[in-house]
Amino acid sequence: MRNSIWTALLALAVLFALVWLKLLLTGGAPEAQPAPVQTPDASSGGTRLRVLVDGEVRDMALEDYVVGVTAAEMPADFLPEALRAQAVAARTYALYCARGGKHADADVCTDPGCCQAWLDEAALRERWGEDFDARHEKIAAAAEATAGERLCYEGQAVFAAFHSSSAGFTEDCGAIWSELPYLKSVFSPETAERVPNYVTFVARSALDFRDTLLYARPTAELSGPPETWLGETERDESGRTAFVVLGGERFSGTELRGLFSLRSTAFTLTYEDGEFVFTVTGFGHGVGMSQYGAEVMAEAGADYREILAHYYPGTELVKEFGE
Ligand SMILES: [Zn+2]
């Protein structure tokens, strides 16, 4: 018994000696290492975002950014469930851009042709005038109701493309960009009754039409009479124009959309009385969620989860933060 007490005391003495020696060698009590500074940016699924606005990078809360995008991209008089679907798409799209490293020093920009549109409070006050408070509150509520929610495929935020309106069916992503399993052509319920300027016309004189085509494709054979220029049209599975043969050259629907400033590639092209006429349905590239389709689904009683599941099939709605 006495031996074991002595052994314990000796062990304690050795322990104290070792601690003393360590303090002596390290020059005092070991300092706590400062915790690494956590800057949860959007590229790692966090809550801050670096937004390129007019050439200047602004750091802002992801949720404030989502309000600015939803306000800029969707009419504020749309139903709350459509606005909620838009808020989730906007948040998801920003997180997708942030991960992709599209911009060197920013996660996302405010150019709708590159990333997605975004407006700050001053711009929204100017746009909405005396309706600012009510509209801003409505859109902020849509962002808040979905705070932190993003659409994921295999655990990653998806390329949540969206557009204004489709012509019966949305476009398959592979028809414009590369194939993605969750961006397939699906039915979209909006019609001319609900969508302003659903069908538009672009008319060009034969001369102007020819000059525009030759500018893009000098090899097109357009020297004969105009009624002989228009060849076969190929449509994709969504019904949009994939290709049109003009003057023996194959023009893609997207190319013609750009050349003649058409609102979409859902068009037919005819020639009559010296004029070429594009009859165009819907607005936008047609991929992903149709905003007017979302509104019509909301009118029919769908909630934002159903709208998103319809337009982005196979994705999972994941909530990373928020109440
Ligand atoms: Zn951009």
Would you kindly provide a brief summary of this structure?
The chain has 323 residues and is of the alpha+beta class.
Description:
The protein is α+β, with helices and mostly antiparallel strands and 323 residues long. It is 36% helix and 20% strand. The strands form five sheets. Strands 2-1-3 form a three-stranded mixed beta sheet. Strands 5-4-14 form a three-stranded antiparallel beta sheet. A three-stranded antiparallel beta sheet has the order 7-12-11. Strand 11 and strand 12 form a beta hairpin. The radius of gyration is 29 Å and the shape is elongated. The site of zinc ion has 7 residues, from strand 3.
Could you give the topology of this structure?
Elements: H1 2-26, E1 48-53, E2 56-61, H2 62-73, H3 80-100, E3 108-109, H4 121-128, H5 132-145, E4 149-153, E5 156-157, E6 162-163, E7 199-205, H6 206-216, E8 230-235, E9 241-246, E10 249-252, H7 253-259, E11 267-272, E12 275-281, E13 289-290, H8 291-299, H9 304-311, E14 316-319
Parallel strand pairs: 1-3, 6-13
Antiparallel strand pairs: 1-2, 4-5, 4-14, 7-12, 8-9, 9-10, 11-12
Helix pairs in contact: 2-3, 2-5, 3-5, 3-8, 3-9
Helical stretch tally = 9
Biggest beta sheet summary: 3 strands, mixed
State the low-pLDDT regions, or none. 15-41
Q: Characterize the overall form.
A: elongated
Tally of distinct domains? 2
For the largest beta sheet, what order do the strands appear in spatially? 2-1-3
Distance between the termini: 61 Å
The overall strand count is 14
- SS content category: alpha+beta
Backbone CA Rg: 29 Å
Q: Determine the mean pLDDT.
A: 89
| Percent of residues in helices | 25-40%
H/E series, N to C? HEEHHEHHEEEEHEEEHEEEHHE
- Beta-strand residue percentage: 15-25%
Small molecules (ligands, ions, cofactors) in the structure: zinc ion
